[in-house]
Amino acid sequence: MSMMQEISHIERCVPAAVRRLLELPPSGQAGEAVALCALHHCLSVCNAADGLPDRRALALRGRETFSALRRRALRCEDALEVSRLLSDMHALVGELFADGRAPLADACLEVLSRLLGLAWETAARTDGGLRAALCGNLADALSATPTDASGLRPFLDATLDGWVTSQSPDGGWPGLPLETALDRIIVLNRRSFLLLDRRADAPVALAYARCRRAALSELAGSPRPSLSLASRLYTASRLGHAYPVDPSAATACLEVFRKVLERAGTGTPEWTLAAGYVADGWCEEELEQAEAEWEEAGMPA
Asked: What is the model's pTM?
């Protein structure tokens, strides 16, 4: 154990929903991969807490979840859901299996091929939510392999460049649903750090500032805030790169997730999604605490 790990301890109570999520069998539901990636990253820095598996056990759970995601993707007929499943598969490969990713990367390409069969005709014709989702998957695939296995890098770049040139002066996309606008921001930002293409950082930051205001207003003004909108804003707020990480927006979203956990049945799709993001938020707090301990001890973060 390193000195850094000895100094950093996870001492505060692990949220009950996070413990419960890990007790449930792997299902491939939205939120499960979010939690596993966050916990694995957190435990690479901090000591394990009572009630949490160690990194080896998390990796085993990750493989089981990856298999569940793949099975669901290969039988699902909903292109948007297949896109989400593939995104979670890529996230698990990148965080948990960086040293042995080749067979898993092949499985991701298998699912990408199926997704293209389901989505390409619509995504190529209509620049809506499905195209944004597909572009996210393409960015993941291109970052995972040295070559453009799909042959669609030109499509990805042309689409993202088109998003930038079609922005209004205040950074928005007139008439585009807010959730789709956030999806575009997330994909543009991921191109910046996954593919090392930072040419659109300034327009992305402008778009995020506009969508952030609109999303926070909508979440605050609704008696039953949209879990889908909160999950997108949370993801965008945590990315950084093209704009600073946004803790205040993330905190507002975490309040939405906690309220969902209070009303939703354990193990339901909305409960699992909310629990995954609560796990991510808790891990971020633990990492911030660890960094503060390192600074106090005079160690580099």
From this structure: 0.90
